[in-house]
Amino acid sequence: MEVAFYLSGLVAVLATLGVITNTNPVHALLYLIVSLIAVAIVFFALGAPFAGALEIIVYAGAIMVLFVFVVMMLNLGESVVAQEKAWLTPKAWLGPSVLAAVLLLTLIATLWLGDIGKVIQGDTLTAKEVGTTLFGPWLLIVELAAMLLLAALVTASHVGRVSPPEKPAMNQETGARKEHS
Amino acid sequence: MSGVPMEHGLVLAAMLFALGLAGLMFRRNMVFILMSLEIMLNSAGLAFIVGGTAWGQPEGQAMFLLVITLAAAEASVGLALLLQLNNRFKTLDTDAASRMRG
Predict the structure, then answer these.
(1) Which residue among B49, B72, B102 sits closest to A58, beta carbon to beta carbon?
(2) If phi over 0 gives left and psi between -120 and 50 gives alpha, with beta otherwise, what is residue B27?
(3) What is the ipTM of this complex?
(4) How far apart are CA A142 and CA A13, in angstroms?
(5) Which residues between 79 and 98 in chain B have a beta carbon less than 8 angstroms from any beta carbon of chain A?
(6) Does the predicted TM-score (pTM) go above 0.90?
(7) CA of B84 to nearest chain A CA: how many angstroms apart?
(8) How far is B98 from chain A (nearest CA, A)?
(9) Closest partner CB to B73 (pick from A122, A141, A152)
(10) What is the tens place of the pLDDT at every residue in A77-99?
């Protein structure tokens, strides 16, 4: 269990580095999928198999497929890679990286100085216990999550609509009027 | 050696969060910005799981379920905005949409 935790944690950090430094969007997406699957293995190693399965099905499955479809629709070519290479100068990434590193050092120092002393033994918490929690005392939060998903569905279908291309001036006008009414 | 100290799990979550934050700050392409947001949400979920398993309580996994719900909602709305940005400005540069004008 410990070996699985440390190895997959290392893979997750390296793959995430690959995501944020890559210039090709498709390669970055594939690195992100590797990172998510490594985090899922961390969950399995810690004894949370339900969360690990959900991570693979929902994150690495559904959300990443959504990203892949959108990148396919955008039809990004070599020009995007060249543009990313032009943007990724040391002047652009040095400042944010230093800030993030200082934040990380502060977090690690706080954890180091704090006296937690807990050790995760890896005892499995099954889906049954999670389901009992969710549909017992947390029922209201499940309903709120459902409403959040509904709101996201309505928002995405409204924002993502494609206006017809002919007569762009007229279309903008009617679109503006529709938003006012 | 038996078991993983809780600090190590939290340090892993902090490292992933810092990497996502750095990517969010120094990228200008909106696809990469959305991916960095996913990384940060995922590391927050990892911290919940670490806390839940350290105390042996299922609430950590229940909270992770809500984090995943939020991530799915955020990704769908963000990708719809990305498509609109690409339709209107023919670019993925977020600086192109910095003016509040149509």
Answers:
(1) B72
(2) beta
(3) 0.92
(4) 31
(5) 79-84, 86-87, 92
(6) no
(7) 6
(8) 18
(9) A152
(10) 788 888 888 888 888 889 999 99
